[in-house]
């Protein structure tokens, strides 16, 4: 049996107890951690935008805005490594990852004034900001290149793009308005010189719902400024709007004649004409080129001057040249014209077998020429002196034929109207010249002297006659008495007539009271 | 010595030849020599009274009084708008803050920026003069005045913070931007100098006038 | 008058004796009951107060204060928005604005009173409390404690809050003001710092600290 009983150890009460006050720092730490983590987690993505200049931008202040809503803030601005551009780092708002797509665009909104576009004036007060346009791509991106200018058309504006081609730019620039029936319905968005430097490709945007009026048949033309033209057709002044006078514009319209086509697809190509008249000139379907040679001055005949057949425009002048015939030293003016027979309404139909269009046409023209059709220079507008070429039937012209061997074929001409007038005037003057004016004048003088004498004697004869028959002449007295007698006689006759009328039986029975 | 019971009408440490450490409160007997002794517990310099307390206090106080003039004459805020720049002194700021609904703000700034500094300067001046003239009455009131001055002093800084953060926030060029003006420096100087003046004043001097001091303050 | 470093004074034998810092009256501190405070009979200055768990509470509150301090200076304090422009500032940002506007000295003063002094206050108090929890309180705790009073005097967070409040209300008239996280953190910090000051009992350190003259 052990008599040593181990003693239990006495463990003093642990004094340490956690005071309630520790709740305070724990709460503080928890709240602090939570706030910090929430902040970090809810931070949106960071992006970098490369731009030319950071003017107006301030790190920590400048905002990124989409549709008026702040979606980010510029946090830092620095120069690129090559010092050529500026890199702005921006912190986007939470949940904006979906905005940052491959084709999302950024640009700086500052006050901008250019031809047709005044924009961003609000930033004078509110400070510059970065605008953005969200793309549609599926890929995301974190580094962007800022656009140099705000896009002319926001990508989500309904409407269609078309491409116009023009030999020169005129007064067009980005933002130039497009008019339809004098209403602005769109604008030019971009232009580019073609590779060969011969024409411009102009990209235009027409807003919905007006884009439905653009069909494959639609004509576009430069409508800026004031279109004043003096031509053989007279004076015409055209303008679209006051705005377009200042900054230029393009107008379009679909000709009423012609097939009704559906609205053109986006990207359709059109020609841009220099004015409305050119736009609406019906296209020559089957243009035939001829040359006519004039032997007189072709002053006033412009390229584009109309060629008429009996007053109907069937073509136009395409070229005016000069030639001197060395042998005869005469001046020749070969003028190239382009005819569109279809404008005459001449439709060749019912071709017989074995015949082709060309032969039939030649035969027709030969026949016309044989019947006296000639080309003649005529005055189109006396005011401006512009001329036109008229094809018409002329009687009494020397016979001629079409020279089909020449290229282009040559049509016969006759001297122009003006020339004929000139000739007539010349001959009149010649005739006048031939008249011996002096002799005629002398003769006249003699005749006048003679006539003078004759007149004097005539005057004397008349005076005598007057004495004879004057009021106090014996002749007149005699005549007077004769007259009296005559009138008495008439009177008695009248009485008799009256009596007889009342008493017609008197003729037979005689008057009562008279002898029986 | 020590250990003898003291009553309210007891002796001050100075009368007993004891020095009280300002930092840790340890009562100790001064060491030999002219130089200040050191507290055996916390190693701080110990002396009977704060050195040149009156001189330093007067110096800071006069400096504060001098700065008080430009603090109120020079503008403390410059507000730049598209129409020009407006300069506002403290008093003008008080007037600007006045509105039918927001008048408490105006009062706060008026009290904190005008009344407290001037009251501090006057109170400290009074305390210093009273000590220098050896006044013996109203000691409890005087020490209470001192404690109030010490406690309230820091609140004069309110306007400095108002102006600081107004300027920090309103930076919206060219619409409106606020800049702190030159007066703000002098105003801050007034607050700091009066605080230093109060700090330098040794309130124990108030009680020394009762009996001629056995040990001269150095 | 030059003050040269002299010899150590001789402490009085009765450690419960002290002189009132305001009126110099020599008196003995009684043992304090819980929650009781000792006041000078002559000038009524509070000389000592019984604080329960002083060091532990100081430590806990100091940690809380440190967390709040970090929050207060990291996040923005105020934001404003008007006509599409917006701006915000932190506490340090306020001092920065002063500096960049040419008021360098005021900037330093503001920075000192609302950032540096509170930071030092919290750091000192934490260090001292940690040191105090050890069995042997090292001397450097005493050094820190000597200067702790200065940090308390120049720590003006509550004054700043009042100033910010006034500025906020004034700016709210012309713009929409958005209080930030830091503002709430600062409000809480002001309270916590006041709680630290109430909980901290320097006497506990002084009574147990290693004496300077023992080295």
The termini of chain A sit apart by: 236 Å
**Unreliable sequence segments of chain C:** none
Total tally of structural domains of chain A: 4
Radius of gyration of chain C: 22 Å
Number of strands of chain C: 9
Unreliably modeled segments of chain A = none
Q: Which structural class best describes the helix and strand composition of chain A?
A: alpha+beta
Q: Outline the biggest β-sheet of chain A.
A: 8 strands, mixed
Gross geometry of chain A: elongated
Query: Fraction of residues of chain C in helices?
Result: 40-55%
Pattern of helices and strands of chain C:
EEEEEEHEEHHHHEHH
Backbone CA Rg of chain A: 53 Å
Strand content of chain A: 25-35%
Distance between the termini of chain C: 29 Å
Strands ordered across the widest β-sheet of chain C:
8-7-9
Q: Which two chains form the greatest contact, residue counts included? A: B-C, 88 and 80 residues
Multimerization state: heterotrimer
Provide structural commentary.
The complex is a heterotrimer of chains A (516), B (218) and C (215). By secondary structure, chain A is an alpha+beta fold. Chain A is built from nine helices and 26 strands. Chain A folds into four domains: 46-145, no CATH class; 159-280, no CATH class; 288-426, no CATH class; 474-507. In chain A, strands 19, 20, 21, 22, 23, 24, 25 and 26 form an eight-stranded mixed sheet that branches. Chain B has helices spanning 13-16, 53-73, 90-97, 103-132, 139-153, 158-169, 183-200, 205-208, and strands at residues 19-20, 27-29, 36-38, 45-46, 77-81, 84-88, 171-172, 176-180. With 218 residues, chain B is α+β, with helices and mostly antiparallel strands. In chain B, strand 7 (171-172) and strand 8 form a beta hairpin. Chain C is of the alpha+beta class and 215 residues long. Chain C has seven helices and nine strands. Chain C has a three-stranded antiparallel sheet. In chain C, strands 3-4 form a two-stranded antiparallel ribbon. In chain C, strands 5-6 form a two-stranded antiparallel ribbon. Chains in contact: A-B, A-C, B-C. The interface between B and C is large, with 88 and 80 residues.
């Amino acid at each position: 049996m052990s008599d040593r009983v181990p003693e239990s150890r006495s463990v003093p009460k642990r004094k340490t107890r956690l005071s309630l006050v520790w709740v305070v720092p724990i709460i503080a730490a928890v709240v602090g951690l939570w706030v910090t983590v929430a902040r970090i987690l809810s931070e949106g993505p960071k992006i970098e935008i490369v731009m030319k200049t950071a003017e107006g931008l301030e790190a920590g202040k400048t905002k990124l805005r989409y549709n008026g809503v702040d979606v980010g803030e510029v946090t830092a601005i620095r120069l690129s490594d090559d010092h050529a551009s500026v890199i702005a780092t921006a912190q986007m708002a939470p949940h904006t990852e979906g905005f940052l797509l491959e084709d999302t665009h950024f640009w700086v909104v500052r006050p901008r004034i250019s031809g047709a576009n005044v924009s961003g004036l609000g930033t004078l007060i509110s400070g510059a900001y970065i605008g953005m346009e969200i793309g549609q791509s599926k890929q995301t991106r974190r580094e962007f290149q800022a656009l140099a200018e705000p896009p002319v058309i926001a990508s989500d504006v309904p409407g269609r793009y078309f491409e116009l081609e023009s030999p020169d730019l005129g007064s067009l620039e980005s933002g130039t308005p497009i008019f339809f029936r004098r209403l602005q319905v769109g604008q030019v968005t971009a232009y580019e010189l073609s590779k060969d430097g011969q024409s411009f490709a102009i990209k235009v945007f027409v807003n919905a719902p007006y884009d439905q009026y653009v069909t494959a048949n639609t004509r576009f033309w430069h409508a800026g400024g004031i279109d004043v033209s003096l031509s053989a057709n007279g004076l015409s002044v055209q303008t679209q709007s006051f705005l377009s006078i200042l900054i230029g514009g393009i107008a379009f319209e679909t000709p009423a004649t012609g097939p009704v086509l559906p609205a053109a697809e986006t990207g359709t190509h059109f020609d841009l004409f220099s004015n409305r008249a050119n736009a609406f000139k019906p296209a020559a379907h089957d243009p035939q080129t001829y040359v006519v040679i004039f032997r007189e001055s072709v002053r006033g005949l412009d390229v584009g001057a109309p060629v008429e057949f009996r007053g109907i425009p069937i073509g136009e002048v395409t070229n005016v040249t000069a030639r001197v015939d060395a042998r005869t030293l005469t001046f020749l003016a070969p003028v190239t014209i382009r005819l569109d027979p279809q404008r005459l309404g001449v439709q060749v139909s019912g071709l017989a077998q074995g015949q082709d269009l060309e032969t039939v046409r030649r035969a027709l023209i030969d026949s016309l020429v044989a019947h006296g059709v000639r080309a003649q220079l005529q005055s189109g507008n006396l005011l401006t002196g512009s001329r036109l070429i008229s094809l018409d039937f002329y009687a009494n012209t020397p016979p001629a034929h079409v020279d089909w061997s020449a290229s282009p074929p040559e049509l016969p001409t006759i001297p122009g109207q003006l020339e004929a007038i000139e000739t007539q005037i010349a001959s009149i003057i010649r005739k006048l010249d031939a008249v011996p004016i002096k002799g005629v004048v002398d003769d006249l003088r003699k005749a006048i002297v003679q006539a003078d004498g004759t007149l004097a004697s005539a005057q004397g004869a008349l005076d005598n006659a007057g004495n004879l028959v004057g009021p106090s002449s014996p002749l007149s007295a005699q005549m007077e008495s004769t007259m009296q007698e005559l009138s008495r006689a008439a009177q008695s006759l009248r009485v008799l007539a009256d009596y007889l009328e009342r008493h017609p039986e008197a003729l037979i029975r005689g008057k009562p009271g008279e002898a029986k | 010595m020590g250990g003898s019971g003291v009553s309210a009408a007891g002796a001050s440490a100075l009368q007993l030849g004891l020095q009280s450490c300002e930092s840790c409160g340890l009562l100790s007997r001064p060491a030999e020599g002219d130089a200040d002794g050191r507290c055996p517990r916390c190693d701080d310099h110990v002396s009977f009274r704060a050195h040149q307390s009156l001189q330093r206090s007067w110096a800071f106080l006069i400096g504060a009084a001098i700065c008080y003039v430009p603090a109120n004459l020079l503008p403390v805020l410059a507000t730049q708008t598209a129409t020009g720049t407006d300069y506002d002194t403290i008093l003008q700021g008080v007037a600007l803050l006045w509105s039918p609904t927001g008048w408490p703000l105006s009062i706060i700034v008026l009290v904190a920026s005008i009344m407290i500094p001037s009251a501090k300067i006057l109170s400290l001046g009074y305390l210093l003069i009273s000590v220098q003239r050896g006044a013996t009455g109203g000691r409890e009131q005087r020490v209470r005045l001192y404690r109030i001055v010490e406690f309230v002093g820091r609140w004069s800084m309110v306007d400095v913070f108002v102006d600081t953060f107004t300027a920090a926030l309103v930076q919206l060029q060219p619409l409106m931007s606020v800049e702190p003006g030159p007066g703000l420096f002098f105003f801050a100087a007034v607050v700091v100098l009066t605080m230093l003046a109060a700090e330098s004043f040794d309130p124990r001097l108030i009680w020394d006038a009762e009996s001629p001091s056995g040990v001269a303050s150095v | 008058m030059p003050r040269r470093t002299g010899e150590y004074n001789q402490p009085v034998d009765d450690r419960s004796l002290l002189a009132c810092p305001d009126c110099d009256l020599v008196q003995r501190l009684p043992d304090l009951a819980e929650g009781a405070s000792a006041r000078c009979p002559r000038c009524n200055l509070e000389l000592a107060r019984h604080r329960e768990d002083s060091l532990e509470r100081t430590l806990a509150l100091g940690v809380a204060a440190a967390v709040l301090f970090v929050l207060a200076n990291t996040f923005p304090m105020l934001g404003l928005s008007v006509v599409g422009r917006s701006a915000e500032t932190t506490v340090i940002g306020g001092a920065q604005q002063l500096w960049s506007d040419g008021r360098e000295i005021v900037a330093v003063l503001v920075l000192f009173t609302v950032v540096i002094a509170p930071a030092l206050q919290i750091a000192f108090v934490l260090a001292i409390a940690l040191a105090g929890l050890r069995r042997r309180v090292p001397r450097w705790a005493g050094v820190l404690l000597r200067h702790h009073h200065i940090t308390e005097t120049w720590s003006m967070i509550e004054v700043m809050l009042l100033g910010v409040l006034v500025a906020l209300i004034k700016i709210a008239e012309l713009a929409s003001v958005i209080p930030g996280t830091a503002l709430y953190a600062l409000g809480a910090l002001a309270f916590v710092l006041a709680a630290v000051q109430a909980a901290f009992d320097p006497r506990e350190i002084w009574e147990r600290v290693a004496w300077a003259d023992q080295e």
